[in-house]
Structure prediction request, 341 residues.
Amino acid sequence: MPGSYPAIKFILQIHIIQTMPIELILAHDERLDLQYGLPPDYRGPILRGGINFSTKTNLAELVLQEIPGENYSIRFVSGKILKRIYARGWIHTLGLYCYFMLKNGIRKRFDSIGKLHLRQDQYACFFTEPTNCSAVFDKNDEFRALDFFYSPKLLEELFPFFPELKSLLELPGTILAGKARWALPSMKEITNQILNCPYDEATRQFYFDLKVRELLFQILENTYKKKANEKIFTPWETARIHEARTILETYISKKPPSIKSLSKQVALNEFKLKNGFRQFFNTGIFEWLWERRMQHARNLILTTNTPIKEISATVGYPLTTSFITAFRRRFGVTPGALRRK
Prediction:
């Protein structure tokens, strides 16, 4: 795979505590030149107070934002890949790395831990020493990823609550709880809060200090807590449960099937479907669909000029007033107020 690409065309180095220098090996003799700052037409989430870079060519449109903290850092990467790209880089600092895939998916490989395949709404977390890594970006409409680095010193703060961390620090190359896990709704809420920090320069660093620790606590709780009531599903049943989720993705803007109908479509009884869905995705079937609709609506409000009435209908609310009520219940602000921010 890497051998099919002719030459290194681009190197990005930002000297922050955890940043992984990146080399992009492109299929054609073209160069990506990063510029400081965000594009003039950028309307996506912003890491307030971050260091920003962007590029726009016929190969890719990329925005990279990064915030350094004391013993941690946050990186948000978003954009569109217009042609297949192979990227390689390296991790140069010992620590815990947590990757959240917010939109679409990615395939990565690390010398220390092996391959990772992250789908939308999944995350992976691993402790590693310096290592080489690579990724394949397939052509797609848009992707978003939020990555976190935690230093060993910060992890030591949580030894009293998670004594398992002491063993983790002795075993670089360890993946926490499987190569990919579905993010809890509470984790998604924290990542949204980080990407939409409401505070000014005087207080936002303190806010980020709290949020990255809150997220880490939930990751560790989800990794080490006991699940005595967790059911065992066969590979076939697991595939059917994930198929149900894929089917529901097509009902963001229309009336979804009943659980009875959905269970028939995936050839799994209702009891196993409901229990398996909650176990794998940490939420009920219709709660998941409602959350997906709200997040889709929020994204449309922030990144487009689509009228709120039209967005309301798009996510299955014929009555705009009902949509506004549901949106405010979910995000604590009305759609109009969010757009005016």
